[in-house]
Specification:
About 5% of the residues lie in helices and about 45% in strands. The protein is mainly beta. Bound molecules: beta-D-mannopyranose.
Protein backbone atom coordinates (compact mmCIF):
# COMPACT_ATOMS: atom_id res chain seq x y z
CA UNK A 1 0.00 0.00 0.00
CA UNK A 2 1.29 3.44 -0.91
CA UNK A 3 2.36 5.58 2.05
CA UNK A 4 0.14 8.59 2.72
CA UNK A 5 0.55 11.91 4.45
CA UNK A 6 -1.66 12.33 7.50
CA UNK A 7 -2.69 15.97 7.54
CA UNK A 8 -4.34 18.71 5.58
CA UNK A 9 -4.89 18.82 1.87
CA UNK A 10 -3.16 21.71 0.16
CA UNK A 11 -4.39 22.03 -3.43
CA UNK A 12 -2.40 25.26 -3.81
CA UNK A 13 0.97 23.72 -2.87
CA UNK A 14 3.76 25.35 -4.92
CA UNK A 15 4.66 22.69 -7.47
CA UNK A 16 6.49 21.97 -10.67
CA UNK A 17 6.40 18.62 -12.45
CA UNK A 18 9.44 16.36 -12.37
CA UNK A 19 11.87 16.94 -15.24
CA UNK A 20 12.98 14.10 -17.50
CA UNK A 21 16.04 13.41 -15.29
CA UNK A 22 13.65 11.36 -13.16
CA UNK A 23 15.24 12.35 -9.83
CA UNK A 24 13.51 11.34 -6.59
CA UNK A 25 13.89 14.94 -5.35
CA UNK A 26 14.00 17.60 -8.04
CA UNK A 27 14.70 21.33 -7.94
CA UNK A 28 12.43 24.17 -8.99
CA UNK A 29 13.69 25.20 -12.42
CA UNK A 30 13.61 28.88 -11.46
CA UNK A 31 15.63 28.54 -8.27
CA UNK A 32 16.59 30.43 -6.25
CA UNK A 33 13.01 31.08 -5.23
CA UNK A 34 14.17 33.84 -2.85
CA UNK A 35 17.10 35.95 -4.09
CA UNK A 36 19.68 37.30 -1.67
CA UNK A 37 18.65 40.92 -2.23
CA UNK A 38 14.86 40.70 -1.94
CA UNK A 39 14.90 43.42 0.73
CA UNK A 40 17.30 46.36 0.86
CA UNK A 41 19.07 45.47 4.14
CA UNK A 42 19.84 41.89 3.09
CA UNK A 43 23.24 40.43 2.40
CA UNK A 44 21.60 37.02 2.06
CA UNK A 45 18.25 35.25 2.70
CA UNK A 46 18.40 31.50 3.30
CA UNK A 47 17.65 28.70 5.84
CA UNK A 48 14.06 29.90 6.12
CA UNK A 49 10.64 28.52 7.10
CA UNK A 50 7.35 28.67 5.19
CA UNK A 51 3.93 27.41 6.39
CA UNK A 52 0.40 27.46 4.99
CA UNK A 53 -1.51 30.42 6.43
CA UNK A 54 -5.11 31.44 5.66
CA UNK A 55 -5.14 29.73 2.24
CA UNK A 56 -1.86 31.43 1.37
CA UNK A 57 1.60 31.19 2.93
CA UNK A 58 3.53 32.91 5.68
CA UNK A 59 6.99 32.41 6.99
CA UNK A 60 10.00 33.40 9.01
CA UNK A 61 13.18 34.07 7.09
CA UNK A 62 16.83 34.17 8.00
CA UNK A 63 18.16 37.49 6.78
CA UNK A 64 21.83 38.25 7.32
CA UNK A 65 22.15 42.01 6.98
CA UNK A 66 24.90 44.04 5.42
CA UNK A 67 26.63 44.43 8.77
CA UNK A 68 26.58 40.59 8.70
CA UNK A 69 24.30 40.31 11.73
CA UNK A 70 22.01 37.28 11.67
CA UNK A 71 18.36 38.31 11.98
CA UNK A 72 14.93 36.76 11.44
CA UNK A 73 12.14 38.52 9.57
CA UNK A 74 8.52 37.59 8.95
CA UNK A 75 7.01 37.47 5.48
CA UNK A 76 4.09 36.39 3.32
CA UNK A 77 3.43 34.79 -0.04
CA UNK A 78 0.29 34.23 -2.11
CA UNK A 79 1.65 31.26 -4.03
CA UNK A 80 4.75 29.96 -2.21
CA UNK A 81 7.01 31.18 -5.03
CA UNK A 82 6.98 34.95 -4.75
CA UNK A 83 7.62 36.39 -1.28
CA UNK A 84 7.23 39.68 0.50
CA UNK A 85 9.56 39.96 3.48
CA UNK A 86 9.37 42.69 6.11
CA UNK A 87 12.23 45.17 6.01
CA UNK A 88 12.60 45.13 9.78
CA UNK A 89 13.46 42.04 11.81
CA UNK A 90 10.93 40.51 14.19
CA UNK A 91 10.75 42.37 17.49
CA UNK A 92 9.66 39.84 20.10
CA UNK A 93 7.25 40.55 22.93
CA UNK A 94 8.85 39.01 26.01
CA UNK A 95 8.17 39.51 29.70
CA UNK A 96 11.61 38.27 30.83
CA UNK A 97 14.13 41.09 30.22
CA UNK A 98 17.10 38.75 30.27
CA UNK A 99 15.65 36.53 27.59
CA UNK A 100 14.32 39.50 25.64
CA UNK A 101 17.80 40.86 24.91
CA UNK A 102 18.24 39.87 21.30
CA UNK A 103 21.81 39.14 20.27
CA UNK A 104 21.37 37.18 17.04
CA UNK A 105 19.01 34.61 15.59
CA UNK A 106 19.19 32.21 12.69
CA UNK A 107 17.90 29.04 11.00
CA UNK A 108 14.21 29.43 12.00
CA UNK A 109 11.62 26.68 11.78
CA UNK A 110 7.86 27.25 12.09
CA UNK A 111 5.49 24.58 13.39
CA UNK A 112 1.75 24.91 13.66
CA UNK A 113 0.38 23.25 16.80
CA UNK A 114 -3.36 23.71 17.19
CA UNK A 115 -4.07 27.42 16.59
CA UNK A 116 -0.57 28.78 17.16
CA UNK A 117 2.48 28.96 14.94
CA UNK A 118 5.57 28.17 17.00
CA UNK A 119 8.89 29.53 15.93
CA UNK A 120 12.11 27.79 16.98
CA UNK A 121 15.48 29.19 15.99
CA UNK A 122 19.10 29.25 16.93
CA UNK A 123 19.14 32.02 19.54
CA UNK A 124 22.23 33.45 21.15
CA UNK A 125 22.06 33.40 24.95
CA UNK A 126 25.66 33.09 26.14
CA UNK A 127 26.15 31.02 23.01
CA UNK A 128 23.80 29.31 20.61
CA UNK A 129 20.69 27.65 22.03
CA UNK A 130 17.09 27.14 20.92
CA UNK A 131 14.77 30.14 21.12
CA UNK A 132 11.01 29.51 21.20
CA UNK A 133 8.20 31.94 20.36
CA UNK A 134 4.70 31.82 18.97
CA UNK A 135 2.52 33.94 16.77
CA UNK A 136 -1.06 33.75 15.56
CA UNK A 137 -0.79 36.40 12.84
CA UNK A 138 2.90 36.66 11.82
CA UNK A 139 2.86 40.24 13.12
CA UNK A 140 3.15 39.87 16.88
CA UNK A 141 5.56 37.23 18.15
CA UNK A 142 5.62 36.23 21.83
CA UNK A 143 8.94 34.88 23.01
CA UNK A 144 9.06 32.07 25.59
CA UNK A 145 12.03 30.69 27.50
CA UNK A 146 14.93 29.20 25.59
CA UNK A 147 14.38 25.45 25.40
CA UNK A 148 17.85 24.28 26.42
CA UNK A 149 21.11 25.32 28.00
CA UNK A 150 23.68 26.43 25.46
CA UNK A 151 25.00 25.05 23.21
CA UNK A 152 22.39 23.71 20.88
CA UNK A 153 21.15 24.18 17.32
CA UNK A 154 18.47 22.92 14.94
CA UNK A 155 15.51 22.81 17.32
CA UNK A 156 12.53 21.38 15.42
CA UNK A 157 9.10 20.78 16.97
CA UNK A 158 6.68 17.97 16.13
CA UNK A 159 3.30 19.26 14.89
CA UNK A 160 1.26 17.55 17.61
CA UNK A 161 1.66 16.20 21.10
CA UNK A 162 2.84 12.58 21.31
CA UNK A 163 1.92 10.66 24.45
CA UNK A 164 0.57 13.96 25.79
CA UNK A 165 3.93 15.77 25.49
CA UNK A 166 5.33 18.29 23.05
CA UNK A 167 8.46 16.92 21.39
CA UNK A 168 11.45 18.73 19.94
CA UNK A 169 14.39 17.47 17.92
CA UNK A 170 17.68 19.23 18.54
CA UNK A 171 21.41 18.94 18.11
CA UNK A 172 23.65 19.70 21.10
CA UNK A 173 26.69 21.53 19.76
CA UNK A 174 29.49 23.92 20.70
CA UNK A 175 30.20 27.63 20.43
CA UNK A 176 31.50 27.59 16.87
CA UNK A 177 31.41 25.61 13.66
CA UNK A 178 30.80 22.39 15.55
CA UNK A 179 32.72 19.38 14.21
CA UNK A 180 30.25 16.86 15.74
CA UNK A 181 26.51 16.53 16.27
CA UNK A 182 23.83 13.93 16.95
CA UNK A 183 20.07 14.37 16.78
CA UNK A 184 18.21 14.04 20.10
CA UNK A 185 14.54 14.36 21.09
CA UNK A 186 13.30 16.12 24.23
CA UNK A 187 9.79 16.23 25.68
CA UNK A 188 7.85 18.99 27.41
CA UNK A 189 4.43 19.36 29.04
CA UNK A 190 4.28 23.11 28.34
CA UNK A 191 6.93 24.12 25.75
CA UNK A 192 8.91 25.72 28.61
CA UNK A 193 10.37 22.82 30.60
CA UNK A 194 12.19 20.19 28.56
CA UNK A 195 13.42 16.73 29.64
CA UNK A 196 13.18 12.98 28.97
CA UNK A 197 15.98 13.39 26.40
CA UNK A 198 16.37 10.50 23.97
CA UNK A 199 19.02 9.86 21.36
CA UNK A 200 17.79 9.55 17.77
CA UNK A 201 20.76 9.24 15.40
CA UNK A 202 24.51 9.85 15.23
CA UNK A 203 26.62 10.85 12.25
CA UNK A 204 28.07 7.82 10.52
CA UNK A 205 31.02 7.16 8.24
CA UNK A 206 31.47 4.10 6.02
CA UNK A 207 28.39 3.64 3.88
CA UNK A 208 26.98 6.97 5.08
CA UNK A 209 30.00 9.18 4.46
CA UNK A 210 27.90 12.11 3.24
CA UNK A 211 26.68 12.46 6.86
CA UNK A 212 29.88 11.49 8.70
CA UNK A 213 30.60 14.73 10.63
CA UNK A 214 27.25 15.94 12.01
CA UNK A 215 23.53 15.74 11.35
CA UNK A 216 20.60 18.00 12.21
CA UNK A 217 16.85 17.94 11.75
CA UNK A 218 15.46 20.06 8.92
CA UNK A 219 11.74 20.74 8.36
CA UNK A 220 9.02 19.87 10.88
CA UNK A 221 8.58 16.06 10.63
CA UNK A 222 5.75 14.96 8.34
CA UNK A 223 3.21 12.52 9.79
CA UNK A 224 2.59 9.57 7.44
CA UNK A 225 0.89 6.21 7.59
CA UNK A 226 4.36 4.61 8.03
CA UNK A 227 5.79 6.94 10.69
CA UNK A 228 7.31 10.44 10.86
CA UNK A 229 9.19 11.42 7.75
CA UNK A 230 12.14 13.58 8.81
CA UNK A 231 14.28 15.37 6.25
CA UNK A 232 17.63 16.32 7.74
CA UNK A 233 21.00 17.68 6.84
CA UNK A 234 24.17 15.63 6.98
CA UNK A 235 27.66 17.08 6.87
CA UNK A 236 30.85 15.68 5.41
CA UNK A 237 34.25 17.22 6.19
CA UNK A 238 36.18 17.55 2.95
CA UNK A 239 39.74 18.82 2.53
CA UNK A 240 38.10 22.11 1.60
CA UNK A 241 35.60 22.39 4.49
CA UNK A 242 32.10 21.18 5.31
CA UNK A 243 29.67 19.89 2.66
CA UNK A 244 25.97 19.96 3.66
CA UNK A 245 23.56 17.54 1.95
CA UNK A 246 19.97 16.48 2.63
CA UNK A 247 18.72 13.00 3.48
CA UNK A 248 15.60 11.52 5.04
CA UNK A 249 14.72 9.14 7.85
CA UNK A 250 11.51 7.50 8.98
CA UNK A 251 10.83 7.64 12.73
CA UNK A 252 8.43 5.55 14.80
CA UNK A 253 5.06 7.27 15.15
CA UNK A 254 4.74 6.88 18.95
CA UNK A 255 8.43 6.70 19.90
CA UNK A 256 10.09 8.93 17.31
CA UNK A 257 13.56 8.41 18.81
CA UNK A 258 13.33 4.96 17.18
CA UNK A 259 14.63 5.13 13.61
CA UNK A 260 12.93 2.79 11.13
CA UNK A 261 14.83 3.78 7.96
CA UNK A 262 17.68 6.16 7.22
CA UNK A 263 18.82 7.08 3.72
CA UNK A 264 22.12 5.54 2.72
CA UNK A 265 22.64 8.16 0.02
CA UNK A 266 21.85 11.84 0.09
CA UNK A 267 18.63 12.90 -1.63
CA UNK A 268 19.85 16.41 -2.49
CA UNK A 269 23.43 17.71 -2.45
CA UNK A 270 25.18 20.89 -3.53
CA UNK A 271 25.64 20.72 -7.28
CA UNK A 272 23.88 23.69 -8.83
CA UNK A 273 25.93 26.87 -9.04
CA UNK A 274 23.76 28.64 -6.39
CA UNK A 275 24.38 25.73 -3.98
CA UNK A 276 28.13 25.50 -4.63
CA UNK A 277 28.97 29.20 -4.75
CA UNK A 278 27.99 31.79 -2.17
CA UNK A 279 29.00 33.08 1.25
CA UNK A 280 29.49 29.48 2.43
CA UNK A 281 30.00 27.17 -0.55
CA UNK A 282 28.55 23.65 -0.86
CA UNK A 283 25.53 23.90 1.40
CA UNK A 284 21.95 22.68 0.99
CA UNK A 285 20.14 23.20 4.29
CA UNK A 286 16.41 22.25 4.41
CA UNK A 287 14.32 24.13 6.99
CA UNK A 288 10.67 23.77 5.92
CA UNK A 289 8.25 21.72 3.86
CA UNK A 290 4.70 22.06 2.60
CA UNK A 291 2.69 18.93 1.89
CA UNK A 292 -0.60 17.95 0.34
CA UNK A 293 -2.21 14.88 1.88
CA UNK A 294 -4.40 14.26 -1.20
CA UNK A 295 -1.64 13.96 -3.77
CA UNK A 296 1.35 13.14 -1.52
CA UNK A 297 3.24 16.13 -2.95
CA UNK A 298 5.98 17.66 -0.78
CA UNK A 299 7.70 21.00 -1.44
CA UNK A 300 10.92 21.62 0.51
CA UNK A 301 12.47 25.05 1.15
CA UNK A 302 16.21 24.90 1.65
CA UNK A 303 19.07 27.33 2.11
CA UNK A 304 21.67 27.34 -0.67
CA UNK A 305 25.32 28.21 0.04
CA UNK A 306 24.20 30.39 3.00
CA UNK A 307 23.10 32.97 0.44
CA UNK A 308 19.72 32.28 -1.23
CA UNK A 309 16.68 30.03 -0.74
CA UNK A 310 15.80 27.13 -3.04
CA UNK A 311 12.73 25.00 -3.51
CA UNK A 312 12.66 21.26 -4.31
CA UNK A 313 9.88 18.73 -4.79
CA UNK A 314 9.15 15.05 -4.18
CA UNK A 315 6.33 12.57 -3.49
CA UNK A 316 5.90 11.02 -0.06
CA UNK A 317 5.28 7.45 -1.27
CA UNK A 318 8.36 7.53 -3.51
CA UNK A 319 10.60 8.81 -0.71
CA UNK A 320 9.37 6.15 1.72
CA UNK A 321 9.69 3.39 -0.89
CA UNK A 322 13.20 4.62 -1.55
CA UNK A 323 14.04 4.58 2.17
CA UNK A 324 12.64 1.08 2.54
CA UNK A 325 14.97 -0.16 -0.20
CA UNK A 326 18.03 1.99 0.61
CA UNK A 327 18.23 2.19 4.39
CA UNK A 328 21.33 1.93 6.54
CA UNK A 329 20.70 2.14 10.28
C1 LIG B 1 25.56 25.72 10.30
C2 LIG B 1 24.55 26.81 10.52
C3 LIG B 1 23.77 27.05 9.26
C4 LIG B 1 24.65 27.15 8.04
C5 LIG B 1 25.65 26.05 7.99
C6 LIG B 1 26.63 26.18 6.85
O1 LIG B 1 26.39 25.57 11.43
O2 LIG B 1 25.20 27.99 10.89
O3 LIG B 1 23.09 28.26 9.40
O4 LIG B 1 23.84 27.07 6.89
O5 LIG B 1 26.37 26.02 9.20
O6 LIG B 1 27.38 27.36 6.98
Amino acid sequence: MASKIIGQSMPNIPWEERPSSGDLVWRYSRNPVIPRDLIPCANSIFNSAVVPYKNEFAGVFRVDNKSRNMRIHSGRSRDGFKFEIENEPISFVCSEPEIATFVEGYDPRVCRIEDRYYLTWCNNYHGPTIGVAYTCDFKKFYQLENAFLPFNRNGVLFPRKINNKYLMLSRPSDTGHTPFGDIFISASPDLIHWGCHRHVMSPRAGKLTWQCTKIGAGPVPIETTEGWLMFYHGVLTSCNGFVYSMGAALLDIDKPWKVIYRSREYLLNPRQIYECVGDVPNVVFPCASLQDSDSGKIAIYYGCADTVTGLAFCYVDEVIDYLRANSEL
